[in-house]
Structures are given as C-alpha cells and as structure tokens.
Amino acid sequence: MADIKYIVNETLKWEGGLSNATTDTASKSPSPYVYNGVTGWHTNKGITYSTFKEASKTLGFEDNADNFLKMPNDIWMKIAKNMYWDLLHLDEVKSQAIANLLFSWTWASGYGWRNRVQSYLKSKGVTWSTTDYAGLPAAINGLTDKYGEKPIADDLFDQYREFYKSLNQPVYLKGWLNRLDSLQNYSYGLLSTGLKFVKKHWLATTLITVGVIGLAISFILPKNK
Question: Pairing mode, if any, of strands 47-48 and 18-19?
C-alpha cells in the first residue's frame, strides 16, 4: 500500500518558502502577519494561509506568526497528511505512483481533477462519484489489478498533463509540465513491477557474484592431495 513518506521530498523540492505574489489566487486571502516589514504573505511551502488557518482548528497547532511564517516540518506534515493524503484515503491505494499523482494533483490544483478522473474511470467501465473519496482507492485498485499498474499510471499521468493544457495558461504551462515530468519520473521508480525487477536483478547479481567468488577461491586454495 502507498505511504505519504514517498512523496514528501518530491513535493517540497518544488515548493519555495514564503510568497506574497499578487498573481496567485491565494493572494485574495493573505495572512495578517508581517515579515521583514512586508505584509501580504499568503503561502508558505505550498500551503496557503486559508488552508493553514482552517487546519489549525482541528490539527492541534496555533494560528500564529511563527507557525505560519516559519512553517515547522511537523505542522507542514500534519496538513499534508490530514487535509490531502488522508482525505483521499491514499493509504489504501496499492500503487505508490498513482497515490503520488492523486496527492500532487490535489495539492497543486484543488479538486479540478475529479471530473477528469471520473470520466476516465467511466471509460474503463467503473462508476465513481466525484465526492466518494472513500471509494476512490477501490476504483483505482480494481483497474490496476485488471490492467496492470503502469498502464493505468500512464493513462492518469496523461490525464493530468491534458488537465494543465486545458487551463490555457501559457505563462505557467512549461513550469507545470516540468514539475509533472519530475513527478512521473520519480514515481515510476516506485512502480511495484519496477521494484520486483530490481529485487530479481539484485538476486541474480548476488548469485552470480557469489558463484564467481567461489570459483576464484577454488583456484586460490591449495588442493588436497
């Protein structure tokens, strides 16, 4: 089953620190906190202030300047796990690559993925409601069991790519697609088929190495006469 620990570093790699960019829609709900004499800070490590504020009500941390402006790792992790990963029940998804994709799509774009994923599932004969997050893992697992993990991951990454193109934001598209390519390359290294291949390859290499060493030792050691 998937584990959030395999997407944390890949996510943070692409997230900057504090942002008060007015081109971001999150700028409509800035924090009240001042940093270096500047106001308007609305996002930190990819988490908007509105999400941070909402999370503070239930996740056991205070909505204050230090926690938002410094964004300690434990607070970041609480928000990522509880408000994104757990919301979609991604622990129940068998494919780490697909869980990474669904987490990242929600993290970066909110719920814009739901209709596109619903249409894709329908094309595969699977009925899924866009509000049935608890039922999403079963729908995904059923497809990977039937068709294989990589073909379904390929399709869903294609859907994600087309989603970005459909937003008609040429200024940001290249950056979005570069990030998506990085996510896909990283996640494909975690495909279960790939892991099985690595294990088999490692076993074969180990056996060959042991055999070669044994043969070498047989030539080195003196023979009984």
Answer: unpaired
Is residue 134 within 8 Å of residue 90, measured between CB atoms?
no
Answer whether 102's CB lies under 8 Å from 153's CB. Answer: no
Distance in angstroms between the alpha carbons of the first and the last residue of the chain: 58
pTM: 0.83
Label residue 49 exposed, middle or buried (CB < 10 Å: 0-12, 13-18, 19+).
buried
pLDDT in tens, 136-171: 999 999 999 999 999 999 999 999 999 999 999 999
Judge whether 18 and 109 are in contact, CB under 8 Å: no
Give me the helices (H) in 110-135, please.
114-123
The answer to whether the beta carbons of residues 126 and 36 sit under 8 Å apart is no
| Owner of token pair 């960019």 | 21
Q: 4: which 2 tokens?
A: 């959030």
pLDDT digits (tens, 9 = 90+) for 199-215: 333 344 334 333 433 43
In contact, 123 and 115? CB cutoff 8 Å: no
